[in-house]
Fold these 4 entries.
Entry 1:
Amino acid sequence: MSFFGELYVRSTLPFLSPEVTAREVAYLERCFAGLPPSGPVVDLGCGHGRHAAPLNTAGVLAGRVVGLERDAYSLAHRLPGFPALEGDLRALPFPDASLAGAYAWYSTLFAFSEAEHRIILREVTRCLRPGALLVFQTVPYERLLEQPSASFQRQLPDGSRLEEESRFEPATGRDHGQRRLITPEGRVLSGTYAIRYYPLAELIQLLESTGLSTKWVHGGLEGEPLTPASTDLIMGAELRHG
């Protein structure tokens, strides 16, 4: 079974409170407040649309957000209030220089191979128009170094039992994990993942090599600086000049 799909949706929703989503949406609204007043903004890997739905319904991006998601299950269970396309990050279904902005949350851009990460970022570069903005969130490399292995078991509100183990490899920068969900009916959903976490200097180099330049680096949703204690690494990027 694919990790992204029913397993991911059912095992992550209980941990995504309305308060957390509201704070993330408010952060994104502040990021995109200065955009030109026309052109779509794409939620890259929108999932069930917990960011895209409220952003497209009201506020500075109302009527401009389009979701992009490869997983059919997530699209079938998405929230109302925004249009969405089924598509692949590695081959974005948008014309050149057509997007006013794009954003991706929870390391969505870095769940592929090294070569594919470059392809994804080049695709984003191709689709952004001058003055457009890319915002993405991941976890600082140093946070994984502090806790290279993790394991937990938890009972979810619907009666499902969630089990997960993960192991971070500093040499490759990859966090390898296995998740297992046992539903109240006795179904077993399981899948594996491997997410790449980059030190900040490498991430900046990666952006520059794919035609982007760093506009800002934040360590949290209030726009605070990145520090060794930060739990988030949020970056704004734009087309590289020259």
Entry 2:
Amino acid sequence: MSRLSKRSTLAAALAGAFMFAGSAAYAADPLVSSQDVEKNINDAAAASQAKIDKLSDQTRDLVADYRTTVAETDNLKIYNDHIAKLIDSQKQEMARYNKQITNITKTQQGVVPLMYKMIDALDQFVKLDVPFEKEERTQRVQHLRDMMEDSSVSTSEKYRQILDAYQIEVENGSKSYAWQGILPVDGKQLSVDFVHVGRVAYLALSLDQQNAWFWNREKKDWEKLGDEYVTSVREAVKLARNQAAPNLMKLPIEAPESAE
């Protein structure tokens, strides 16, 4: 082979070597790029997963908060409904109370004048009745009058006490009482035993049990009884003091006045 041919062959070989080297270098660059891209993708995926995990945690927290809020809202609704019913009930009760107060006020407007009339009637009755225990009964009526002007006593209590006074007068008409006192006779003050047998008779017996008197309704004064009544008056005193058993007694009874 000529020297020229050798040179050409060497030149071609070197050129091929350089071309192979360039091709190898060129082929290595895409591999490196692929690895970088894969790494970037993995990094991005990891970052995305982290974000997804964080969002998932936040979502779970939000769902839990939502459920708690819904439960609290339901409880509050139930409680508010309960309170609303209580308020309605209280309003109805207040309406009833207001109506009762109105009725009580109207009742008092009618009852108070009635109570004054009842006291006046009781006062008149005591004045016209047989005068046994006159001072005590008169004081009872005066107490009722004073009570009516006492603001510390309720209307119901005033009415109750008036009824009690009437009840006492009713009992006086069905029971007998005996007590000692002073009887004015002919300008003298005699100590005697007084006794009233219901409202049938009002009598007096001297302490020596020898003389007896009765209250004359018509004359409105004491009148001496005959001896035939003394024994019966003694029995009346004993009976009133529970010292004798009930028995028939002869007492001076005034005939009732005929109605005109």
Entry 3:
Amino acid sequence: MTAEGVPVRVMLLADTHVPARARDLPAEVWAAVEAADVVVHAGDWVGVALLDALESRSRRLIGVYGNNDGPPLRARLPEVADAVLGGVRLSVIHETGPSTGREARCAARFPGRDLLVFGHSHIPWDTVAPGGLRLLNPGSPTDRRRQPHATYMTATLHGGAINDVLLHRIPR
């Protein structure tokens, strides 16, 4: 399923904050989890129960801990995760620092990578750094803060390319 020649449907999440900001993920998000080949979570889970649920309901889960994740989550998740999916060299981290200079800073920190998924800000982000590193932040499906919508992303990784990146807005 994750060979370079086979398209990989990826679902991107971050900043779920369950159960602090929501009791559970919205039904639309769970449907996207179950439809994806790989779920990527860029930290700030808050509760271990969500990690357990995502592990049981997803085909494959790649996740990292965030600044709001305590010792039980940090014991099970890395600060940075790396994988190759559909020929795309992927890294996942929670926090990348201020938006000013983010692309250059991340390109220097993650050389040789094609895609960096991050969270922390709850603000959706889709840019390309010098050298071609794509940076994606799916926002938050549960805690939109000052954003007009709660969000998550999906993408298809195939043949080393990042395709069909979609930002999904969750109706209130």
Entry 4:
Amino acid sequence: MTTATSPGAAGRAVLKAEWRLFRREPVSLFWVLGFPTALLAVLGSIPSFREAQDDLGGLRVIDAYVPVTVLLSMIMAGLQAMPPVVTGYRERGVLRRMSATPVRPSAVLGAQMGLHGAAALGSALLSLAVGRAVFDVPLPRQGLGYALALLLAVAAALALGALVSALARTSKAASAIGSAVFFPMLFSAGVWLPVRAMPDALAHVVEALPFGAAAEALNQAADGSWPGLAHLGVLALWTAALTLAATRWFRWE
């Protein structure tokens, strides 16, 4: 006598299995969870970065880089960590074989997005905690607005990663496409130059991109204001557009 497996139970089983595999990838865990905080620690060890800067409105460089490292974890998760895993499953025929079982291939994609999203959020909280405890960076004064901007930024990063996974046929192609998009997204997030320190013309262009808008939304919430509706709207529109494109082009085999 056989017992049918419910979709919910199958989904939970997939999540547990993917979590075990995820824990066994120390390199991915480091780049998503450890590297952004390590970068923050390195930057904070530079004495001049702990001094107020006129071009940052009296903020210190380390103050401006906490939101940057928060976004860095999301970019790493969405573009570098997740796409090679998903495309590797498709390349090896795992998703095709799963389509003949009670476990739908979509459960794997959902588990991967959930795990990488949770890791990115965990890294963001770690950056905030280290910034506060080690470098006396104030915590966001508008907590609810900051949380909303964080969630929208994670959604945009995962949607972008899903699109890369949809377009790439192999894990090597996913790494190549992800790297091609990775560096422009780093620039828009302010890794090399914080968005608030950019010239106005460049800042307006960057703010039309998902992580430029996210950087400004996080900055506004950190300063105590509700994130601008324009920045939140840019994030929501990018997330919707990327999700639709990923859904349109994604193939299970």
